[in-house]
Records
---
Amino acid sequence: MSNVIRISEAASVAMHAMVFLASESGRVVPSKEIASMLGSSEAHLAKVLQRLAKAGLVSSTRGPKGGFVLRRPAREISLLEVYEAIEGQLEETKCLLGRPICHGGKCIFGDLLKQIDQRTKKYLTKNKLSHLASVFKG
């Protein structure tokens, strides 16, 4: 089944992992625990967390008590920032066929794609990790 909004598995894992870390209130969380909570492979999660660390969103600690923690307060980090750390800048949807068959004329979808893009960007920008942390709390 196809989705209207396409978010890669890596971006989805990143956003969920970051919200989970936000729910842990500054506790250093082992990657194994995050992977288990998300039902993700630890290897895939490790690659995602590495990209988040490179973007300055998480810090890692090595060793038996090691793991990951948010680098900044959850109230300062939006889902858009997490998404863009993985996927790059969120861009406007172009022709769904990948080529301008309408030749600049009217699209069969009207302004639907533009509306979806705007609402998605607004949602990702507005929602901070702190707003969503309750999803993982009992």
---
Amino acid sequence: MRRVAVFSGVIVLLSIAALAADYNEDDKDKDRFAPGAAASYKGSQTTDKITMAAVPFITEEQMHTAFGKVNPNKYGVLPVLVVLENGTGKALRLSLSADYIAPDARHVDATPASDVTFIGGSGKPPSVPGSNPLPFPRRAKKGPLNTWEIEGRAFTAKLVPVGEKVYGFFYFQTEYLPGSKIYLTGISDAASGKEYLYFEVPLEKQ
């Protein structure tokens, strides 16, 4: 009985060690991607002490840093990193939405990250902004963009404390064009509910 107990204890310790190793590997992987200050990017804007940057990810180096071996551009998806810094002295509440505005004023809605994971797969066509597709088949297969980075690095922040920075990606089914912009809305004072004006941030190559 004692040998069984010792053996069981060893198994438990090994399991804990394995979980800790997995956790540490996840942490290391997430730490690979650490955007700079919003003001450090070309095209950043500051309005009402809120600084916003929008960065189109279009190079292999950018893709590798954020998405590893996956390149969303190859599947018609443009990832745009949004960095928001709160210098207002008040907490901000976010319900951020983003539109891509092409140089010819054409608008493209952001595609939800959960839908991006199906692009390039079978059984479920990608969401096309502005369309009203028929119900998807039940047996849908996710595509090559079904990696944790796509959803894990999407912009999901709902609150920005005083002096803090939040960031994440919006995804657009379009190509990058010089002169394009990102139109962002959905920022308000967490205490009063007062909404801030929209941001129209130029997409500049970094």
